[in-house]
Amino acid sequence: MKTIEVNNKHVTGTVSEAQLEAMKPEAAAALKTLLEGSGAGNDFLGWLDLPTRTPDALLDDINATAAQLRKDCDYVVAIGIGGSYLGAKAVIEALSDAFSAYRSQSGTTVLFAGQNIGEDYLYELKDFLKDKSFGIVVISKSGTTTEPAIAFRMLKEQLEKQIGKADASKRIVAITDAKRGALRQLATEEGYKTYVIDDNVGGRFSVLSPVGLLPIAVAGYDIKALMDGARTMQAATNEASMENPAFKYALTRNALYQAGKKTEILVNYNPKLHYFGEWWKQLYGESEGKENKGIFPAAVDNSTDLHSMGQWIQEGERTIFETVVSVLEQRHTEVIPSDEANLDGLNYIAGKRVDEVNKMAELGTRIAHVDGGVPNMIVTLPALTEQYLGELIYFFEKACGISGYMLGVNPFNQPGVEAYKRNMFALLRKPGYEAETAAIQAKL
Ligand code: PA5
After folding, report:
1. What is the pLDDT of residues 131-151, one digit of tens each?
2. Residues lining ligand 1, CB < 6 A?
3. Strands 75-79 and 109-113, how do they pair?
4. Which GO terms describe its molecular function (predicted)?
């Protein structure tokens, strides 16, 4: 059966086979800790068996809600930030036609808000929606995050003005904690349809819950196939063996880190994967960057970025390694035409598929980078489909749990995210922050 695979052959110039072998017990212990739930943050392991424990009835219910929103709305705004945004955005971008925004409208388009506090962004979104039929999926596990709360307040007001409060409440769906938070209270009072984010599923591990599944279903994609792929990977990632792709990836990246490779660049050669890189950066950045430790997660889109970051990667400080996400099959076929005059000198590749040229750019770059002191791993994906994206998501999540435990941190908390919030609340004079306001004013 086709599935995703990890190749770590091209790291051996930096870490030897023997060094990789020697790290197996450490990786096995981390995997055991994760599977037994005996490590730090073990109250946040609900994502581990989400693919197998999510009932079909929930997926059917999500599909029914999505179908109703698709019937009522040309646009649905998914409001959320961080883990309540990036997973859905990554999957939708990976599966969408790159030019759908410029084609005549067919079906329902998912837009995003609450992932920034850009005043112009919100103005332009509101202005765009003012004569459109739209709905809202508001997502916040805590139910108190400022960025989505602002966007929701503004878009809810607009929707209620456009179609009236009663109809607006039928086009708003809230995804939040079962009991806690302002959003839960608001949803109950306004009578919105709601979905629960389980207590034991953290934001950045929540894409395979209603958080990611509802926006993905609204965009018209097959969430059952996505979950099916995740189930395949759940079953394939439990053994302490190099046959387990999550084990192999987690082990190898920690070996590289210990060898002084402090930055990992996730590389794609398919522009549809840009937001997958953003999702991955959050997953690994928030999970591992703590206690003054952690691989810095970066991402590039090639070959675009070979003309911007390529120089640095080839010859800059030798503290980086790459993980290339390589998509084997493309959805469409485009062949480079022959040209009699050949003024551009391209006839030597006439008749080849564009993807063949892209694959040679990928291979040539990988060899050049290894030669230049940048070890790389390859994660091969048969195609960009719901099934394989489900596999890829679960693979990276499982590997992140193993890797975080190998690093010796709690991969499931994010204490550092609070620092900016405290300062922002103090600067905005939020009630309850009087002491912090005085303290921060003294620093200005
Ligand atoms: O991974 C995380 O926990 C965070 O990135 C959150 O998803 C993000 O801060 C948004 O939080 P919330 O869903 O509570 O609004």
Report:
1. 999 999 999 999 999 999 999
2. 81-84, 140-142, 145, 148, 202-204, 286, 414
3. parallel
4. carbohydrate derivative binding; glucose-6-phosphate isomerase activity; monosaccharide binding
